[in-house]
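Justification of computing resources. Each target in the renewal requires a structure prediction run like the one illustrated here; the chain below, 166 residues long, is used simply to show the kind of job we budget for.
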Amino acid sequence: MRRAPGKATEAILQYGPLRLRAAIGRSGVTSRKREGDGATPRATMRLISAYRRGDRMGALSTGLPMQRIRNDMLWCDAPGHPSYNRPVCAPFVASHETLMRKDRLYDICIVMDWNVTERRRGCGSAIFFHIARDGYAPTEGCVALSPADMRRLLPYLTARTTLTVH
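Resulting structure tokens:
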């Protein structure tokens, strides 16, 4: 994946012959990712697993381990908490992302291995590959595709797939 020409918060994701428009972080791309900076990390990240909104998304074909999102599913983004950059369950008092969002961003949400298997406090959490906002508005550091492009790409993704951000 590389930044789109002249657009700091959009990218072109290439998979084989496919070239797909993507949204990236509001602060562009960085090699020094920090919690809350709004940047997408410049890195090669393995796709670990995925979540889906079962009430909005039917069966999806993918080689990724995928689970249906429940109302109590959260993701800890509090650097000082022992569960930093890990899934947690409600009720949870530390800072977190709600996976069962009212908007459609996490209707399909893929966990990328940014600061997950080798975790460093404050170096960024909840870096997901998810559904883009209308008009490809910037993300908080994630990579986002249109729903149609995500469905198109999902069958090719496995736990061995990596996404490289240049």
